[in-house]
Inverse folding.
């Protein structure tokens, strides 16, 4: 079982990025999927969750209205569309399915 994140990078404040997490080795469509982030010196925090069929989503208050989680159960991929990014959202972003974690992708918000 493997989760591989991609799409991170450097973006200016107010900019947008779309992260992807490609899953393999397990029945992706049976699992809720989650995005987390961990900033330097801080604990890992849950950013967003999507149900197995994509019908339900939950967001951290800090990202509501700016981030959108979605999934494609044919492509076995979960996405995190992030807009109006803030410098304090600089972090490594991870996806999770049950006990499986990806390696993370770095997002840096800076001018």
């Amino acid at each position: 079982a493997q989760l591989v994140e991609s799409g991170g990078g450097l973006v200016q404040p107010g900019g947008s990025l779309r992260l992807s997490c490609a899953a393999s080795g397990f029945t992706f469509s049976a699992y809720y999927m989650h995005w987390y982030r961990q900033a330097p010196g801080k604990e890992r925090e849950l950013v967003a969750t999507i149900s197995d069929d994509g019908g339900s989503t939950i967001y951290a208050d800090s990202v509501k209205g700016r981030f959108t989680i979605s999934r494609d159960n044919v492509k076995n991929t979960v996405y995190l569309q992030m807009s109006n990014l803030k410098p304090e959202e600089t972090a490594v972003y991870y996806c999770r399915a049950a006990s499986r974690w990806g390696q993370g992708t770095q997002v840096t918000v800076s001018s």
Summary: The mean pLDDT is 97. The longest strand covers residues 17-24.
